[in-house]
Amino acid sequence: MEIIEVEAKSILTPQHAGSLSDHYDYSLNPYAGCAFACTYCYVPKFPNKNNRLPKEWGGWLEVKTNAPKLIRKDRAKIFGSSIFFSSATDPYQYAELKYRLTRQCLSEILHYHPAKLTLHTRSHLILQDIELLKKFDRNVLSVGVSFTTNDDTVRKEFEPKAPSVQKRVQLIKALHEAGINVVASIAPLLPCQPEEMVKLLKPYVSKLWVGSINYPEINNKPELLDKYRDFFSPSIQNRVTSFIKQEFSA
Question: What's the confidence (pLDDT) of residue 51?
Fold first, then answer.
C-alpha cells in the first residue's frame, strides 16, 4: 500500500451536480483512495489529479494531513450547511488508526453547527468515536453503513479487505443503542438471502437505500459479475430490491 501525505488546498467540495447535489451542500473526504479496494467501487471511474488508473484502486492512499485546519479555516461555510462525509473514500479505513483525521474533522465540525451531517462507512472503527458522535444533535447526524450482503462468503469475494458482515451488524447495533440514526446503504446489492438481510438490518436501521452496481466496466474482478450474472440480471435485482423495500416499509 502506497501512502502519500499531502497538504490539500481545500476539504469542502461544493455539490452543484450529481447524486448528492439535491441533498447536500458539500462533500468531505479526508483521504483520497481507499484501502478497502472493493471490486465494484465507482470512484475509479472518475478522473483524479494523480492520473491513477482504475486497476490501481486500493493500492494507494492520499492522506490530507491538514484537513482539520482547512475545516477551521472554512468554518463559515459549515454553519447551517449539509455535509456528506465521505463520498469518495471510507473515513474509517484502517489508516484512521494512525492519522485520526476523521476524528479531528468531526471535532472541528461539532463547533460550527451544520444543519445536516451524514457519515458513511463500512467500518467498525467508527465505534471508537461513538462518544464524539453522541455529542451531535440526533436530528443533525446520521450514519450510513454500507451493507451489501448478508453472506460473508460473498463479501470476501467482492470486498476482501473490508470488515466482515458480523462486524457491520455489531456496528449498526451499537450505533442504534447509542441513539444515533442509522441508514443502511445496500448499494450495490450483492448476492444475498433477502429475508436474512431484512432480519439483520430491520431492528437497527431507520431507513435504507438500495442500488445496483454502477460502471461494471471498471470492476476489477469481472469474473464475479459472470459468476453471479443471474443475480445481477435486471429482473432479479428488481425483485429483490422490491422485496427488501416492502419489508422495511411494513
Answer: 57
Q: Residue 131: left if φ>0, alpha if ψ -120 to 50, beta else—which one?
A: alpha
Which three-class secondary structure state does DSSP give residue 145?
Answer: strand
At 47 the pLDDT is 62
pLDDT, residue 18, reads 81
User: Which structural domain, as residue segments, surrounds residue 73?
Assistant: 2-249
d(CA 50, CA 32): 10
Determine if the pTM surpasses 0.85: yes
Q: Give the number of domains in the chain.
A: 1
Q: What is the pLDDT of residue 24?
A: 97
Domain CATH number, residue 17: 3.20.20
Is the CB of residue 97 less than 8 Å from the CB of residue 38? no
Unique residue bearing C-alpha cell 468515536: 129
Provide the Cα torsion 82, 87, 89, 90; round to 10°: 60
pLDDT less than 50: residues of the chain:
none
Beta bridge partners of 27: 13, 84
Distance CA(156)–CA(240), nearest Å, equals 21
